[in-house]
What does this fold into?
Amino acid sequence: MTSIIDTPTSALPTSVRPTSAGPLVIKHPIEPEAEPAIRLQEVRLTYETKEGALLEAVDRTNLTIRAGEFTALVGPSGCGKTSLLRIIAGLTPASNGDVSIFGQTPKEAQRHKRLGLVFQEPALLAWRSVEDNVRLGLQLNPRETHSSTNVHELIEIVGLSGFERYRPAELSGGMQQRAALARALAIDPPLLLMDEPFAALDEITREQMRYELQRLWSVSHDPRDPPRSAVFVTHSVAEAVAIADRVLVMSPRPGRIIADIPITTPRPRRPEHEHSDRFVNDTAIVRSALRSPTTPAVPLDAA
Ligand SMILES: Nc1ncnc2c1ncn2[C@@H]1O[C@H](COP(=O)(O)OP(=O)(O)O)[C@@H](O)[C@H]1O
Ligand SMILES: [Mg+2]
It folds into this structure.
């Protein structure tokens, strides 16, 4: 790394420039700019099908997601949402471009347990109880600071107290998804990636879970740590607007981000907010971007 001494003085902020009176004095320590949670540069993904044909799934994508941002990714079925999330998670390598997760490659970020993953089908181990599934998440936690989090606390937070010894098959879909969330949150990951986690649930449970997730999000996080970020894939516009700080809309395949819509409903959010003018207006903007994939509804974040 270049030391401050090697930096041309003209490039330094005035507070750290050498003064004529004497040697270099650093008046205020320079805070290095926080790494964004996710930075995608010119990312593309082309699959080779079994027949040998090339299928372009993700088109040129540039995106920066800052630490603390809860982002929803919406788009029509087959547009490349899962593919893009898998690239971010380090499960599928991009064909082109650069992916950085807190300044690391996705694989490194995965190794350092900086990612939590929740999929549409809760990937619980069928032969393990709820308690053992959640404990597995904690056992994977390499950070001593969170060793105080205990399995029972997490199970209570997700509302599964009393079901500790149940196996996944003995639980409803909503309960399985809560257990999967508890397991992902056990490592208190700085970045949580969720691919349609509520898609298999009935409508009523699904509507409850979007608020449940926001509650879990805040109570399961150690406030001494930097804020946590999330990417939440969904094809439900209402779910995206209810849950996110920012909604990214993807075009039909090959998917690219065609709108970047800030959601300003204050937190904590409640189901009543879905009747507010602001909510209705935000969902209309997202829907209009989905309907006219060639004309962005709002200027894109050029980052
Ligand atoms: N492993 C794969 N091999 C070939 N094609 C794939 C593969 N995975 C996904 N696809 C194709 O890529 C496109 C995008 O898929 P996907 O990312 O799953 O979309 P979404 O999650 O938005 O529904 C689809 O046309 C899908 O059929
Ligand atoms: Mg998908």
Remarks:
- The CA atoms of residues 96 and 208 lie 39 Å apart.
- The longest strand covers residues 54-65.
- The radius of gyration is 22 Å.
